[in-house]
Design a protein that fits this description.
Elements lengths: L2 E3 L18 E3 L4 E3 L15 H5 L6 E3 L7 H13 L2
Length: about 80
């Protein structure tokens, strides 16, 4: 499933440069994740880097509106990084 940045975000800018899929950008009030680009770092890392660099616990969470299997996340990674 894609990840979601909650309103607990303090706009520290730690997550945006760490995202290998360029899925994180500044929204109207705080950073947001483009669910169509988020693979939870599948294909890049063992765990989502945005969660590991975020200084506020439970700010970046699983998006309940975007439940995706690991296979679906892998397919998204392939499309994002290996399309001709």
């Amino acid at each position: 499933m894609a990840l979601l940045i909650t309103k607990k975000c303090i706009n520290c800018d730690m997550c945006e440069p760490e995202c290998p899929n360029q899925a994180i950008s500044m929204g109207a009030e705080y950073y947001e994740i483009d669910a169509d680009r988020c693979t939870e770092c599948v294909g890049h890392y063992d765990a989502p880097t945005c969660q590991s660099v975020c200084p506020i616990d439970h700010t970046i969470v699983a998006d309940p509106a975007r439940v995706e299997s690991n296979n679906a996340l892998w397919e998204k990674f392939v499309i994002l990084h290996h399309s001709a």
